[in-house]
Amino acid sequence: MDFYYSLTSPYARVVRVALMEKERNDAVTHHVVNPWEDAPELVRANPLVRVPTLVTDDGTPLTECLLLIRFLEREWPSHSLLPKTGYSRNMSEAGLAMGLIDTAVHKLLGRKIAGDAFDESALGQRRNRAVVSALDAMDKAPPGPFPELGAIATLVALDYLAFRFPEFDWPKGRPALTAWHADHAGRSSVTETAPRDG
After folding, report:
1. Which residue segment(s) compose the domain that 151 sits in?
2. pLDDT at 198 over 80
3. How far apart are CA 169 and CA 21, in angstroms?
4. Does the bond joining 145 to the residue before it have cis omega, within 30 degrees of 0?
5. What is the pLDDT of residues 104-154, one digit of tens each?
6. Number of compact structural domains in the chain
7. Distant-in-sequence, close-in-space partners of 82: CB < 8 Å, separation ≥ 6
């Protein structure tokens, strides 16, 4: 199977961490691409030119982060990211974290289009409020154990905020979430997939 991703995409990172935690990282061939440059191999695999994209051994292209997680769970059920105990809680945590990732990505794109003025726009302020609200909710009820999907998505979301918005001190005033992050930040699946340019 061929796996296409960028080193900065939080959506791709969720899948990358999942592959490592399921001990299946070597079961796919890794291709680092830049979706903004319309890499030919990615264009062929995914008409939307988005990452992550996984092409199965029979040539079927699979896209969208959470759909890929579902595929990985079906293909390799061991080391499940979706345990039966606490399933609803795990799904709720994953949904909140993926929403935070979406909001952060929209905020980044808004700045690329409108510059810093985006933050002062009605939409920009709405995005900022959503980020704060999500983080506060996470601090009140930190995610369950790693490597549940909710925990993976939360850690990826927090690291993405730190990577793209270093001026925003998300740990400030959130001791429980900060402690939770510190407990898991040293895992090999986390350190080896840390977002970076290049």
Report:
1. 87-191
2. no
3. 28
4. no
5. 999 999 999 998 899 899 999 999 999 999 999 999 999 999 999 999 999
6. 2
7. 73, 90, 148, 149
